[in-house]
Amino acid sequence: MRLSRSFLPTLKENPTEAQITSHRLMLRAGLIRQTAAGIYAWLPAGLRVLRNIANIVRHEQDAIGAQEMLMPTIQSADLWKRSGRYDAYGPEMLRIRDRHERDMLFGPTNEEMITDLFGQVVKSYKELPQVLYHIQWKFRDEVRPRFGVMRGREFYMKDAYSFDMDYASAVDTYRRMMLAYLRTFQRLGVRAIPMLADTGPIGGELSHEFLILAPTGESGVFFDSALEEQDWLAEDVDITDRQSLEKFFTRMTSFYAATDEKHDEAAWAQVPAGRRREGRGIEVGHIFHFGRKYTESMDIAISGPDGAPLYPEMGSYGIGVSRLVAAIIEASHDENGIIWPESVAPFKAAIINLKSGDAVCDGICEKLYAAAPDLLLYDDRSERAGAKFADADLMGHPWQLIVGPRGAKEGKVEIKNRRTGERTEDTVEGALALVLKNHG
Ligand code: ATP
Ligand code: MG
Fold first, then answer.
1. In terms of pTM, does the model score above 0.70?
2. pLDDT(413) > 90
3. Closest among 227, 315, 324 to 277, alpha carbons compared
4. Which terminal residue of the chain has fewer beta carbons within 10 Å of its beta carbon, N or C?
5. Domain residue spans of the chain
6. Per CATH, the architecture of 3-337 is what?
7. Distance 209 CA to ligand 2 centre (A)
8. Cβ < 6 A, ligand 1 pocket
9. d(CA 64, CA 184)
10. 282 alpha carbon to ligand 1 midpoint, in Å?
């Protein structure tokens, strides 16, 4: 993308409405703009990040055998009346009436819809397990939308739903999902710690939230510092083997980690004093097992091994995709701006032309840009160098390819690593090989 022609409105000043760093930086880097309270438009660069995150989430869901589908945002109230949640959900649900006076709603979550669809399709225990997911916009009329997309009213979520024939198999599914989550967050370049969590209004018995540690996080967290030192994914896990899954899960959950809602003083006292860490975290994912709550209340039975009706065991598994954009920034920035992990960055590198209009500089920049116009942002504006550097730092591209008259004469490009600040020099080919290395 050429910066001179792009819809990438960076701001020099801090917007006064933003209270936390990620919100300030998302506005300043031209990723989002608010259109109503808690509702945001994703501008081109922001959308690229959102898509990159969604794609990583998608790959790791697919890797454990979950199947992607797409359910609508608008749901019929009748579905929710069947589970009994229509009245129970309260003012967070955006209720709508259509022209025929039918009660509809903008979905805050999809347990009812997926359970109903499952019941229309699956007839026998032989078709289990089934894990289905979609990545779709949700609406929750939050009392206090704040911190930008961190707590929006409209937000983008991956939600998966599982159906198993018995508890043991549902627990396997839950553990597989925990593994997929750890792999997802690792690929996103952040550490999210699974913590024992409250099951809340969805109900159920087994539940973990995944939290990224950050002082601006809305949840209080208590955890054993051994968890920060663990390399959780070092060991191979065979996802088709119950014992292998159990071993992984036991290792993962053997250290104390709980959100304030589930904090247990007696268990906390067992953690060696030097390893007790208290802090704040951002909830980026949540997994639940809740058994037969919806299959029973909505009367979705399939035929079991003995021919008798069987109500499948369910779980649901969310990842806050739009919240993650903000959470990654909270975890990865400095005083000059965002520092994107390479896997999610909107562009792999910015090409900074220090002398736009100079034939040699322009030539090298065009050559760099032509190699991957979709992955590189070419700052071809006739701005001063300082402004270009400041914008590149603000937008957080992992690399900056700096082309000035002196180096250009020798066909050289200066390469700056945004995270370390390290600068090296290389040929056009060398520079491209480095910044595009993870792109075949
Ligand atoms: P919270 O406790 O933050 O309100 P929740 O427990 O209500 O979240 P879940 O129902 O578990 O949320 O939703 C799954 C994921 O969706 C959460 O882990 C979070 O990352 C994300 N999420 C939930 N509410 C919002 C919101 N208002 N804005 C952005 N993301 C959200
Ligand atoms: Mg939650």
1. yes
2. yes
3. 227
4. C
5. 3-337, 347-435
6. 2-Layer Sandwich (3.30)
7. 6
8. 109, 140, 142, 151-152, 155, 157, 283-286, 318, 320, 322-323
9. 12
10. 10
